[in-house]
Design a protein that fits this description.
Order of helices and strands of chain A: EEEEEEEEEEE
Oligomer: heterodimer
Number of helices of chain B: 0
Shape of chain A: globular
Largest interface: A-B, 28 and 28 residues
Shape of chain B: globular
Radius of gyration of chain B: 14 Å
Structural class of chain B: mainly beta
Number of helices of chain A: 0
Structural class of chain A: mainly beta
Distance between the termini of chain A: 36 Å
Largest sheet of chain B: 6 strands, mixed
Helix content of chain B: under 10%
């Protein structure tokens, strides 16, 4: 079955270390997204990518970096510059960045990152 | 940043009750509205994508309406079942906003036997 795989499900890191969260999709979707969830807040967009080798900052990109070297993969690195990295991270994809065809997003199951 | 408001924040209903939630947004520059269902320990799942004022969508016992002029969408669940228990998320795309979704904080629904 096609879908999005995020790994690992739980991740623990020491403060000051960079950490990379994996997101892989086999849906042949062009667009991919990273969201962050904190208690009591809606999902907030970190970065998104419309095509390979291209990506744009979302609303809260500071302290994060991404790459899109393959269509299937959109890893997110949480750097030591991110002040509050402990959160739940969701990856998503969509057929196209444009929504006029009425397609929703497909989400992964998320990675819970805890920095101690 | 666009403000997407959802109400109520949480809701407890009895099995068989019908219920509805609201998603409110600034009505200008509207492009599309999404509804998602997010069950505990699962991935959010797309329910509806709505783009036209007056749009109505239906999937089984769940339906949604959209009023872009006044800036709201309603999600209705008829005859709630325990399996409907989930967080329901509303998200919007604004024109000129780069085609990215901005999410509300969600309505958490608990259906009790």
């Amino acid at each position: 079955d096609g879908g999005i795989t995020q790994s690992p499900k739980y991740l623990f890191r020491k403060e000051g270390q960079n950490v990379t969260l994996s997101c892989e999709q086999n849906l042949n979707h062009d667009a991919m997204y990273w969201y962050r969830q904190d208690p009591g807040q809606g999902l907030r967009l970190i970065y998104y990518s419309q095509i390979v080798n291209d990506f744009q900052k979302g609303d809260i990109a500071e302290g994060y970096s991404v790459s899109r070297e393959k269509k299937e993969s959109f890893p997110l690195t949480v750097t030591s510059a991110q002040k509050n990295p402990t959160a739940f991270y969701l990856c998503a994809s969509s057929i196209t960045l444009f929504v006029e065809r009425g397609y929703g997003y497909t989400f992964g199951s998320g990675t819970r990152l805890t920095v101690v | 940043i666009l403000n997407v408001e959802q109400s109520p924040q949480s809701l407890h209903v009895q099995e068989g009750d019908s219920t509805n939630f609201t998603c409110s947004f600034p009505s200008s520059n509207f492009y599309a509205l999404h509804w998602y269902r997010w069950e505990t320990a699962k991935s959010p799942e797309a329910l509806f994508v709505m783009t036209l004022n007056g749009d109505e969508k239906k999937k089984g016992r769940i339906s949604a309406t959209l009023n872009t002029k006044e800036g709201y969408s309603y999600l209705y669940i008829k005859g709630s079942q325990p399996e409907d228990s989930a967080t329901y998320l509303c998200a919007l795309i604004l024109t000129g906003g780069g085609n990215k979704l901005t999410f509300g904080t969600g309505t958490q629904l608990k259906v009790e036997l």
